[in-house]
Amino acid sequence: MKITSLALALALISILDAPAMAREQSITVYAKNFAFTPGTITLKLHQPEKLVFVGTQGTHGITIPGIGLSNVIVISSKPVSVEVTPQRLGSFIARCAVYCGIGHGSMLLKVNVVK
Question: How many helices (H) does the chain have, and how many strands (E)?
Fold first, then answer.
């Protein structure tokens, strides 16, 4: 059986047009003294998401139990990727988990989990 160019093109389109839920998403969060950028991220309930943490100044850490990140993720200049699938709706506040200086207490990341 001979595959035509049209049939091949249609097959590729259907693969590339897979539902968004089947694709892994990625959000990069940068950490520096004394802020996370962006300061707020939004995740979808029950949708897998890859979070990439990169330190641009100093060493930091983060833990976000509300979305399943109970262990401290140490953030330095080498990107650290973690995969999460939020199981609860709501807004969660994450704080820097590694002391980084006088502004450490105000270093926050807000995580919104929506439908």
Answer: 1, 9
- The structure tokens listed for 110 are 């807000």
Residues 52-62, buried b or exposed e (16+ Cβ, 10 A)? ebbbeebebbb
Closest to 38 measured CA to CA, from 113, 115, 108, 114: 108
**DSSP code of 3?**
P
Q: Give the range of the structural domain holding residue 25, as residue numbers without chain letter.
A: 20-114
pTM of the model: 0.77
Structural domain contains residue 12 = no
Task: Give the side-chain half-sphere CA count within 13 A for 80.
Answer: 17
Per-residue pLDDT tens digits for 70-105: 999 999 999 999 999 999 999 999 999 999 999 999
